[in-house]
Design brief:
39% of the residues lie in helices and 13% in strands. α3 packs across α10 and α5 crosses α9. It folds into 2 domains: 128 residues, Aspartate Aminotransferase, domain 1; 244 residues, Type I PLP-dependent aspartate aminotransferase-like (Major domain) (Aspartate Aminotransferase, domain 2, 3-Layer(aba) Sandwich), CATH 3.40.640. The chain is an alpha/beta fold. The mean pLDDT is 95. It has 13 helices and 12 strands.
Length: 391
């Protein structure tokens, strides 16, 4: 017998992975070239040339001990380079290597952060729509997820957030730019959010952490400057992954950075390093630590994403859908015609079009379309997208 909680998660399942599995079956039956699969945020773009060149150089001329264990927090020189990058770009002014813990991607980073700060029964506020694994991440470490819906524009409602926070609130997770809505939060809103968390922390007599999950911060379509939420809160933690910016989703490499102004930064970093080890990660992949440290300024070519975004937005508007153009990520999150996510997804599947219902992101009444795919798939999706006004 397996654990009850795992049984529940198996039974509920992730709609993204469920649709992906169904997609594989449909592709086997009808041919992959005939299925428009917009389910999984699994980039098809290759990594930037410099990443592959750097990988080749390191493999051809490996530094001593390349494949040995590294310190739990990561190689010191890699941590220093990441900190210098964060400081130089203004994302976390004052950051030094001692503020960084290298992790196996952003999901590992979020779990490491939660393991380090949560006591059993502590509450973690999640803003809907959210990344679907957040509730499980929180419960992994004895925490209690507290859902709070954002507004119609997908921006946080600060009054609703404050009312949701109580004596047991220990953290708020912010996904920015947001998966699935694509919203980039304005700097002014982030400052007010940080002030709110600081106020609640003072009332509670212990910090309320702001965990900023930002793997999409380079995948953006707006000229507005990106600001890390962790910058504005002295108890801020930045979770980052190179999965999207460098198209390295399968390599599992990212980091956690602690706000330099945190009064207990040194102790917190030690706790994060320990959590990295006892959760079984031990250390982030050593080879990829070396690679990304030399490619911190690189980003995939965004031109295909911009093109796919424009084509799908035009198709959605032409077929009567309500959708806010995403400022970041490679997702669209339109309203569901008729409101029933699951029914609409089944209807689209009959057309060999695979979408994800909004309920899996804590926001029923919407659909997620992932456009990090190839041009042929986008062409099929445009052709097969049902008319929102009825065919």
């Amino acid at each position: 017998m397996i654990a009850r909680e795992i049984r529940r998660l198996l039974d509920d399942g992730s709609a993204i992975r469920r649709m992906w599995t169904l997609g594989r079956k449909l592709k086997a039956a009808h041919g992959a070239e005939n299925v428009a699969d917009l389910t999984l945020g699994n980039p098809v773009l290759p990594p930037p040339p410099k990443v592959l060149e750097t990988l080749g150089e390191i493999v051809a001329h490996p530094p001593p001990g390349l494949h040995r264990y590294t310190p739990n927090a990561g190689l010191p020189e890699v941590r220093e380079r990441i900190a210098a990058h964060l400081h130089g770009t203004g994302l976390l002014p004052g950051a030094e290597g001692g503020h960084v813990v290298v992790t196996g991607g952003a999901s590992a980073a979020v779990n490491v952060a939660l393991r380090a700060v949560l006591d059993p029964g502590d509450e973690v506020v999640l803003l809907a729509p959210w990344f679907p694994d957040y509730p499980a991440h929180v419960m992994n470490h004895g925490g209690v997820p507290v859902p709070v819906s954002t507004g119609e524009d997908f921006l946080p409602d600060l009054e609703a957030l404050y009312l949701a926070m109580g004596r047991k609130t220990r953290a708020v997770i912010v996904n920015h730019p947001n998966n699935p809505s694509g919203r980039q939060y304005p700097a002014g809103l982030l400052r007010k959010l940080a002030d709110l968390l600081a106020e609640r922390g003072r009332e509670n007599g212990r910090p309320v952490y702001l965990i900023s999950d930002e793997p999409y911060r380079e995948i953006r379509y707006t000229a507005d400057r990106f600001e890390s939420p962790a910058r504005f809160h002295e108890h801020g933690l930045m979770a980052y992954s190179f999965s999207k910016s460098l198209s390295l989703a399968g390599e599992r490499i990212g980091y956690l950075a602690v706000q330099p102004a945190c009064p207990d930064a040194d102790e917190l970093v030690r706790a994060l390093s320990l959590a990295n080890r006892i959760l079984g990660f031990t250390n982030a992949p050593a080879l990829w630590q070396h690679v990304v440290a030399r490619c911190l300024g690189e980003v995939v070519d965004l031109a295909p994403y911009r093109s796919h975004r424009s084509r799908l937005l035009e198709a959605l508007a032409g077929k009567g859908y309500e959708v806010l153009p995403p400022e970041g990520t490679f997702y669209l999150f339109p309203r569901t015609p008729g409101g029933d996510d699951e029914a609409f997804v089944r209807r689209a599947m009959e057309r060999l079009l695979l979408l994800v219902p909004g309920g899996t992101f804590g926001r029923p009444g919407h659909l997620r379309l992932a456009f990090c795919t190839d041009e042929h798939t986008v062409d099929l999706a445009v052709e097969r997208l049902p008319d929102a006004r009825g065919d």
